[in-house]
Amino acid sequence: MRKLLKWFLYFLLVVILIVIIYAWPRVPIITGYAAKSMCSGVFVAERQPATITSRDLSFFPINLAHTKVDYVDKSATASLFGLAKRKAVFREGLGCTLLNDFPEDKVREKQYKNPVPSYNPDTLLWPMGSKIKDTVFPEVNYTLLDSVLEAAIDIKETKPVKKTFAVVVVYKNSLLAEAYADEIDRNTRLLGWSMTKSLTNALLGLLVKEGKLKLNQPALVDSWSGDSRVKITIENLMHMNSGLSWDENYFNVSDATKMLYVVGDMYKYAIQNQAIYPPDSVWFYSSGTANILSGIVRNTFGEDQDYYRFPRERLFSRTGMNHTLIEADASGTFVGSSYSYATARDWARFGMLYLNNGIFMGDTILLPGWVDYTTEPVKGSDGTYGALFWLNRSKELKDVPEDMYLCDGFHGQRVFIIPSKDLVVVRLGYSYKNFDFNEFLSAVIKTIHKNLKQP
Fold first, then answer.
1. DSSP type of residue 325
2. Strand pairing partners for 191?
């Protein structure tokens, strides 16, 4: 009996050690993910908590967390078996953020009132407005296209589920077709995850055009002076070949998950990483570099209100992206790596800006040549990456033209831009399990039979 008790105590000790060493560091990330997602889903996307729980938070281990919404406080909290309670709060114009490192009252002080558009989108034609012109392209098989889009959206009790929220197809700048899951519509803001990096590309492009930044200039991070990091340029950060150490793992305790769910100042966290390679020598994907860029953008403005106004006035209002919002961290810096919400139509408008070489309805928004620069393959990426956009030069999607490039986000958020086909295709969802992007895109392309430029 004593021997049995002894072995039981040993076993219990091992279990406790495993929990302490392995599980416990992950618990604040789990509850942080749940609280942040619920807060943004309710107060930014204006969705129902039950739907967010059953879809966005339905995967292990996030589904272990218990979340609660406070509509009066405009916040959401999450805990795991009553432990590691985390809270995310909503701020006008800046979305939701986890309470990390900063007192709640200081976090809530940062607000930005988005101005009402100077025009009524409901009275204007697409793309600046929401009215769709009844344009018929004889080369398009509309019946087949509708069936392709409907197949991308789950029908209740149909398996295997594709977990798609929305799909939109734009052809020759016309909104050709769209489809939505139940409880989602054209006005629902949806999370872009790392497609936010491509929005950051546009913000950098605007500042370069205005002469406030140069691609080849040093990143001008004060704490880097005096060591090898002083050689890192803005272009190195955009190309993700800065040489800074970084662990981009979404399913473990990593630099990426600690930055997003544990710290309050993501820019400060990312710039603390040390150089392990010389700049422009090794390519590897890093959300940290996108948030360094976001901090650099912020530092070009003397006042935060000017910084918060910048994307709205210089990008979103000029492209009809009136439902788009980039969320800020607890310190007030836009989370340029991961946190943007926009409708499926707004994501399509963003794709149109790049499809048309930075010109939107005659308005030259980005510098001439900026899109060519953006889609030039980065050394070491094997043709898969440009400047905060992904590429198809290596034909990862084998049945899709090589000139296709895309905004790419976690859980299968995509904006596909195909210049040779005059196409922008958007797919948004809460996973892409059972969803074949190559099959979907090639099927869309096949519905347009003639009168197209060849790749």
1. E
2. 341
Strand partners, 180: 166
Determine if the pTM surpasses 0.90: yes
What distance in Å separates the CA atoms of residue 329 and residue 396, rounded to the nearest whole number? 34
Residue 85 DSSP label: E
Q: Give the integer Cα–Cα distance in Å for 236 and 238.
A: 5
Would you say residue 453 has pLDDT above 50?
A: no
Could you report the per-residue pLDDT of 38-93, keeping only the tens digit for each?
999 999 999 999 999 999 999 999 999 999 999 999 999 999 989 899 999 999 99
Sequence-distant (≥ 6) Cβ neighbours of residue 436 within 8 angstroms: none
Of 370, 409, 407, the C-alpha closest to 390 is 407
DSSP 242: S
If you ran DSSP here, which 8-state letter would residue 353 be given?
H
C-alpha 352/C-alpha 415 separation (Å) is 10
Determine if the peptide bond prior to 160 is cis (ω within 30°).
yes
Q: N- to C-terminal Cα distance for the chain? A: 77
State pLDDT tens for residues 143-155. 999 999 999 998 6
pLDDT digits over 265-316, tens only?
Answer: 999 999 999 999 999 999 999 999 999 999 999 999 999 999 999 999 999 9
Tokens linked to 234:
């803005």
Residue 227 structure tokens: 């060591």
For 434-440, what is the mean pLDDT? 96
Q: Are 342 and 348 in contact (CB under 8 A)?
A: no
**CA geometry: angle 297, 302, 304, nearest 5 deg:** 70
The DSSP secondary-structure symbol of 25 reads: G
Residue 287's nearest CA partner among 266, 318, 308 is 266
Q: Which residues pair with 340 in a beta bridge?
A: 326
Cβ-count burial of 396 within 10 angstroms (0-12 exposed, 13-18 middle, 19+ buried)?
middle
The pLDDT assigned to 200 comes to: 98
Distance, in Å, from the CA atom of 104 to the CA atom of 223, rounded to the nearest integer, reads: 27
